[in-house]
Fold this protein.
Amino acid sequence: MARIVKKFGGTSVGDVARIQNVARVIKSEYDKGNQVAVVVSARSGVTNELIRRAKAINPNPEDREMDMLLVAGEQETIALTAMALHALGVDAFSMTGAMAGIKTDPYHTRARIVSMDCKRLIEHLENERVVIVAGFQGANESGQITTLGRGGSDLSAIALAKGIDADLCQIYTDVDGVYTADPRIVSKARKLPEISYEEMLELASLGTKVMQARSVEFSNKFNVPFEVRSSFNNNPGTIVKEEVSSMEDVVVRGVALDKNQAKVMITNIPDKPGSAARVFQGLSDANVIVDMIVQNIGRNGVANLTFTVPRDDIDRASKSVEAVLAELGGGEVELISDIAKLSVVGVGMRSHSGVAGELFSALGEAKTNIQLISTSEIKISVVINESESDEATRVVHSAFGLDKED
Ligand code: ASP
Ligand code: MG
């Protein structure tokens, strides 16, 4: 007998037929004699629709009321999934995040899980009852309902797997695993049988939106291995787990492309101590997350500073920078949205050299100009023109030997 957590995302429970399909997947696991705890998201689109309604009524809704509203999406699907299981003759029981023992800090709309108290849930499992838990939600110390940030059902599932000491955690989604690149862009992309937490984290935060990045951080921190697989077929998915030494044999595991970036260029900023600090302090006060940063050497008392921000934040970023430049008494801002960030990721980079050179020559062959570069231990990223980025991704994918054989 095994104890298994299965998480189904919004598209997997998108309508009645799909909920019935999910119930069949759960039943076949349960029929093997396994204990099954399930986490479900809201139907796809529901959370966005609730946010739209809230904003139509009040452009600045209170965070507490937002949470009260948004948990409704998951509460619908836990009840319907339990009913679908009942219709198949399976004993099932739905639980809100709070009932399931997910305890969070007090911060509404972006709460962090502080502890899991799964005693009651485990009792149900031991009484051969399937438990269906609402993802994305918990409760704080004073019993207020909180949510875990967008995409937070993944986090609920990983935390639950840890909380009930599950043997297996399966994330069912609309793709059947993690690929070497986005298959919609690179037709020769391959499904990876396994990948390390760190590689998954880089890919998750780099625009391969298979999973919420925070949930991968959590699984890394607490060593909770999981499988990403499709709810629409029975193919084996991708196992995400602790790094093992053989993973280093592959230098580049995957190529990620993030088109949700914009570039801010500041020219002729007064070159004196504290200028950069003022610019970035202003951005942080405006809640803008800065990614890649390049500053050139100052000349004639002025310098140039370039960095990237999420495209949605471009207005806030430029307002903040304009205000700081006015204070500093100089500098011009230019905003460029037609960019993309291409990254190669792999734990093998720790023990191999020459990856940057290979990447740059592949881009050279593709006649793609590199605007910015940044590196970490297991990743190299470049900013390039968005219009050339799909083709560049295909060329780089092939240059690192990732193409599947046909
Ligand atoms: N329903 C929530 C969202 O759309 C949580 C999730 O789907 O994981 O962000
Ligand atoms: Mg999701």
Q: What stands out?
A: The chain has a mean pLDDT of 94. The chain has eleven helices and 20 strands. The first helix runs from residue 16 to 31.
